[in-house]
Amino acid sequence: MTDRLTGKKILVTGAASGIGRQVATRFVAEGARVAFADRDQPGAATAAQAALEAAGAGAEALAIDMDITDEQSVTAAYAAVADRGWTLDVVVANAGVQLFGRDAKAADLDLDVWKATVDVNLTGTFLTVKHAVRGFVEHGGGSLILTGSPTGLNGEGQDFTAYSTTKAGIHGMARTVAAAYAGQGVRANVVVPGYTETPLVTTISGDPSSRAAIVSRTPLGRPGRPEDVEGIMVYLASDESSFATGAIFRVDGGMTSL
Ligand SMILES: NC(=O)c1ccc[n+]([C@@H]2O[C@H](COP(=O)([O-])OP(=O)(O)OC[C@H]3O[C@@H](n4cnc5c(N)ncnc54)[C@H](O)[C@@H]3O)[C@@H](O)[C@H]2O)c1
User: Fold this and answer.
1) What's the CATH number of domain 9-252, 3.40.1280.10, 3.20.20.70, 1.20.1250.20, 3.40.50.720?
2) I want to staple 104 with a disulfide (CB 3.0 to 4.6 A). Which of 43, 108, 194, 210 is the partner?
C-alpha cells in the first residue's frame, strides 16, 4: 500500500458487504479514516473491525448505522461522522439492491418491485448525495463516487427493467451534480463494475449456466472480483483525480464494449 489517502475522511455506503466492504477496507489500508455505513449494522461493525485489524496500528475506521432510504437516518449518519470530528472529503454512494426473481421485463414488472428498487437505488442514492454535497459545499469541496452498472449503459439489463433504469438514473445524477457544483469544488463520478461476484449476485454465481452466460459476455473472460474496482476508487478518492468530474469509469472486463 502507498498511503495515497492519508488524511482523507471517507464514508462508504453498503460497506457491510461486497464491493463497498472491499473498497472501504482498501481505503483504510491507504491511510484514510473511513466510515463503514450500512443498514446492516452488525455487518458494518464486523467489516470495520476486520479492516482495522488488517491495517494495523494507526488505522481508523468506524461503523455507522445508515438506511439510505430514510432521510433522518442519512442525516443522523452524517452527524455521527461529524461528531467524531471528521469533515468528509469523499463519499462513495455504493449501497444498492437488485431484486432477482422479481425484477423483470417492463410488461411483467410488478409496481411494488419497481418501487422497492427505486427506493433504494435511486432515492437512497439521491439522499446520500444530497447531504454529502451540503457538507462538501460548506467545507470547500469533495469527491463523490457513485456505483453504476453496465445495465445502465447497454442492453445487459434487458430482463431487469427496474434495476437497469435506476442505474441509468445514477449515471445521470452524477452528471447533474458534477455540472451543478463544479464551481464549488465538488466532483462527482461513476464507477461501473462488470459482473462482480458478491452476495448480490448469488442467483447468477450459484447457477453454472447463468454464470457461463454472463462470463461469455465479458471479453476478459472471467467474473469480476470486488478487488477489481479498488484501484479506480482509490484514484477517484485521491487528489490524483482532481480534473476528473462528470465521468463514467468502466471496470467491467469489457462487457460494455460489446
Ligand atoms: N455485483 C455486481 O455484479 C455489480 C455490478 C455492477 C454494479 N453493482 C453495484 O455495486 C453496488 C454494491 O453491490 P454488491 O455487489 O457489493 O452487493 P452486496 O449485496 O454485496 O452489498 C450491498 C450492500 O448494500 C447494503 N444496502 C442495501 N440497501 C441499503 C440501504 N437501504 N441502506 C444502506 N445500505 C443498504 C446491503 O446491506 C449490503 O451490505 C450496488 O450498487 C450494485 O448495484 C454490483
Assistant:
1) 3.40.50.720
2) 108
